């Protein structure tokens, strides 16, 4: 299914989605702090960005699980429109980014507009969306380069470099390139496979630390790359710090804390009334709960295998025109990381934001539970990346609180 990780980079010979599929994958996350690991996207591709307006207010109202669901819905809707074809995307907690060839741009516009309309109707959340040609980004002195990180043999996540996604988001927040949300029947995105059944994941080492580190405006790329590798190393100690997901996977309870959210996902997918969707989700999640509790295989689905894959497939660290990580760590490790980040900010190497909390959230995209390529997005439970971004001095955003 995937090429072996860490093979020498080949030069892709197409500007379609097979361009991305042909890129080599690295299993060594620390290597991806080096700009040389990235390949420029073709000029005829487009970049899409989305973020939730006034996410801080929603976080304060206790709606961060809804925010994570809407952000992941952008990715799920586009993936379903592409019938499972791999494409570069990144989950940002209260938003998302992606890139696609021009031939798929209209599909993405339709999917994003549907998610934005659904987010407003289902959760009263305003999802701002925009699309920008890669050629336009380059004409404005930025770039969009990608690499592939394979945390397990079954999945690969896109990493982004060059500042292009961040620039596109800044312009979107300034009112440029924005797309209108869909209304009525058009605001029913295909969210097949999007679930939020797992309980909050409490910190096992002391706390969950959300980290965002982006280059300072005049920082030398090599200095920022060296800093990124240093922070990744600080966050790679398997004893005092690591993934928030425990080896056995997160708890699955019934009824799940997110069943009302998932009912709205199901209603968008099926067009059923919300009460009917709630009953369907309760029944389906109860059967899933029994399967995980008993460990009994159902057809091709093996709950033990699924849990092991889930742990390996989680997206708790990424390069997205900077470094983002959600770590389960001891307070002393968090202190060391934050001290180093503050020093880097004082030196003019990076703009930084962190947020401490007691638990993490998981949002899942599982197109088929019998396959191994399900993906799982991790964020802090009480603000996570959005709260960390709000702490970055000089953030170019407005009220959406993202870097």
Description:
This protein has 403 residues and is of the alpha+beta class. The chain is 36% helix and 23% strand. The chain has 12 helices and 18 strands. The protein has helices at residues 17-21, 55-60, 64-81, 105-123, 134-139, 164-173, 221-234, 259-270, 274-294, 303-313, 331-347, 384-390; strands at 25-26, 39-40, 45-52, 89-91, 95-101, 127-133, 145-152, 155-161, 194-195, 201-202, 207-215, 241-242, 314-315, 317-319, 323-329, 350-357, 359-365, 375-380. The strands form 4 sheets. Strands 9, 10, 13, 17 and 18 form a 5-stranded mixed sheet that branches. The longest helix has 21 residues, at 274-294. The protein is globular.
Layout: helices, strands, pairs:
Blueprint: H1 17-21, E1 25-26, E2 39-40, E3 45-52, H2 55-60, H3 64-81, E4 89-91, E5 95-101, H4 105-123, E6 127-133, H5 134-139, E7 145-152, E8 155-161, H6 164-173, E9 194-195, E10 201-202, E11 207-215, H7 221-234, E12 241-242, H8 259-270, H9 274-294, H10 303-313, E13 314-315, E14 317-319, E15 323-329, H11 331-347, E16 350-357, E17 359-365, E18 375-380, H12 384-390
Parallel strand pairs: 1-7, 13-18
Antiparallel strand pairs: 2-7, 3-5, 3-6, 4-5, 7-8, 9-17, 10-17, 11-15, 11-16, 12-15, 14-15, 17-18
Helix pairs in contact: 3-4, 8-9
Q: Top keywords for this entry?
A:
about 400 residues, 18 strands, disordered N terminus, five-stranded antiparallel beta sheet, disordered C terminus, alpha+beta, five-stranded mixed beta sheet, 12 helices
